[in-house]
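User: Can you write out an input/output pair for a complex, sequences first and structure second?

Assistant: Here is one pair. Inputs:
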Amino acid sequence: MSAVFSDPDDVQQRLDEVDYLVDEGLSTALFLAVTLGQPLLLEGEPGVGKTAAAKAVAAAIKTPLIRLQCYEGLTVNEALYEWNYQRQLLTIRLAESHHDQIRDADLFTEEFLQERPILRAIRYEGSVAPVLLIDEIDRADDEFEALLFEFLGEGAVTIPELGTYTAARRPIVILTSNRSRELHDALRRRCLYHWIDFPSPERAAQIVRRSVAAARDPLIASTTQFIGRVRQFDLDKAPGMAEAIDWVSALSVLGATELVRPDIIRTLGAIAKTPDDRDTIIASLDELGFAASIPG
Amino acid sequence: MSTPTVLRGVDKAAFAVALGTRLRARGIPVGLTGIEDYVRALVAVPPDSRARLYWTARITLVRHHSELAAFDAVFNAVFDDSVLQLDPNARRSPLGGAQSDGERFVGVPGLSGPDQPGSGLPWATLPSVIADAEDSDSLAAIPERFPGRLAALAEVPFEELNPQQMQVLGEWLASTMSTWPTRRSRRQRIDRAGHRVALRATIARSRRTGWEAVELVHVRAVRKFRRVIMLCDVSQSMQAQAAAYLHLMRALALTADAEVFAFATTLTRLTTILGQRSTESAIEQASAKVVDRFGGTRIATNVRALLASHHGGQVRGAIVIVASDGWDSDTAEQLAAAMARLRRRAFRVMWINPRAAAPGFEPRVATMAAALPYCDALLPANTFQSLAQVITEIFRCSGPR
C-alpha cells in the first residue's frame, strides 16, 4: 500500500494545487481509492467534473494518466492487448526463407504483444502507480464489463498464451458513468462508489474563479446563480459545471463585467444546447430579473 | 493524523456488520465485500468527525444512486437520534455485559433480538424514530389491483373516472407498451444473421490468418424505434378527455421516445414535462403549462405550426397521432391543406376521436370530413381500453418488424 496521500485533507490540498476543488465526499472517495487500491466508480450528471477528477489526481501525484474511452463495440483487442499479426507473419516468412523451424511458443511472446490501455497500466514501471481512467463505461457493451472483472477484482490480466500479468503497483482506477444504462451489480460490487452532486452556487463560483482567471467576481457570482436557477427548469439538457465555465469564458472574452440581458442572449449557446432549452430560458428571463426594459 | 473521537473503543468489524445489517433491512443490498471495504476504510480514515464517518460509509457501502436517500435516512436515524445508554438503568445492565469502560459500547449483534430497535448497535436508538424511518415509504404506495378489476375499469368512459383511477390506468397503459415497433436505420452493425458482407471488418479479421479471408463478417441494418408524435386537443370541447390523453402521451413519451404536444389555439410542447418520474407532478405541470387550455380550437394553424417549427423534421417517417373531436375554428380547406402536408411528411397519420365511439357515428363536422382523406385510421378513444387499442393499431400499421 503506497502512502501517496496521508489523509483526505491532504487530497483536498494537493488537488487544490492543481486547480481542482473537491468537497469532503470526493476527497474521501479518492483517498480511499488510492489507499485501499480499489477502483472508484464515479457517477453524476454530465459536466460535474468526473473525468476532470481523474486528470487532477494524475496531475497532483505526477503520474501518467492512461485513458480508455469506452464506446459501443469496444473489445478486448482495443482495451487489453492484441497480437501483432503483421510481425508474426513476417517472422514466419523470415523463418521459412532461412529454412528454420518455428513453433507456436516462439510466436506468442511478449515481443509480439501490443499493449492496450489496461495492460499498459498493469505493466507500467514507475515509482508511483499510474492513474487509469475508464471513461463512460456505460457506453461500452455489457460483455465488456464482464471482461473488466478480473482486472478490477485482482488487478491482473490473463493472456492465455503467456499467463497472468499482475500489477506490481496497483494502478489507481477511476471509472466514470453517465448512467445512460444500468451497470451490472458485479461491476459495482468491485468498486467504491461516489455520486458527485452538482455544486452549490457558492462552490460553483469558486470553481469557475479557478478555471477562468480573467473573469470578474460579480460576473461569476451572478452567472453561477443564474445557472442554479436555470437548472430547476424542465430542460432537455440542464447546464452543468463545464457549461458554466464555458459561459463565463465566453462572457469575459466579450468583455462583460456583469450579467445583462443582451449578453445573455448573445452567449446563450454556451448553456442551452437545444432550440427548446433556448426558448425556455429566453422566455423566463423576465422572471429571473433580466427584463427587456433594461436599456442595454 | 488526529486521534479518532467518534467510535472510540468500538469493535469496527461488529459496528460495520451491524450497520450493514441495518441497511440491508431497509433494502440496500450491502454485500460482505462492502462491509470488508468499510472496515478497511475505517482503518485508513480514522473517523474524527460525523461528516467523515458519513462519507466513508457511503462510499464503501452504497453502490447505487437510487439507494442514497435510504442510506441517508438510516445513517441519520442511527447517528442523530441515538442516545448513549448513560442513565442509571442502562448502567446496571450494560449491553453485552462488558466490564471495562472502553469496551462497554461494543456491539454484540447476537445478544439482542432481531425485533428490538437499534439491535446490534453499540447504543440504543429511539424506537419511534426508527419505526418512522422504516415505515415511511410503505404508506405512500398505491394499493395493487387485480387484473380483472383493472380490465373492468378500462371499459369505463373517461368522464366517470376519478384522478386516482386515471393514474392507475395510465400506469397500466404504459405497462402494455413493453416492446415497440422499429424501423430500419441507415447504420449497420455486425451480426451473424446479416446478409451483407462487411468488407472492412472481414479484411481486419483476416489479419490474423495471413490476409486470407477465412471468416466472413456479416452486417445488417440497425433497427431503431419508430418515432411517434402526438398532438392533443385540450380545448373546451375536449375537457373530459384531455386528462386521459395526457396519460397516453406520458406513456408514449416514457416508453416510445415520443414527441408530444398539446394545442388549443397555440402549440405547447410537453415532452420534457411529461417525461418526469412522478405521474402526479408531470400531469399537474403539463396542465399548468398549457395556458390557453379550454379556449377555442385551431387545428389547421397548429398542424402548420408543428411543420414549420424545428420539430417539423421529426415528423418525417414518424407515426403522427392527432387527438381531437374535429371541431375547428379554421376552415375545412385550411385543415385539408395542412393535413395533406402532414400526410406527405409522416409515415402514418392516425386520428383519434372520442366521439367516434358513439353508435352510428359519422364524420359530419365539415373539418373532420375534410381531414379524414389524409388519415390512415380514424379510431374511437373514449375509454382506456380503446386507448390500448390505439397502441395495438400503432403496432399493426407500422408494418413488418
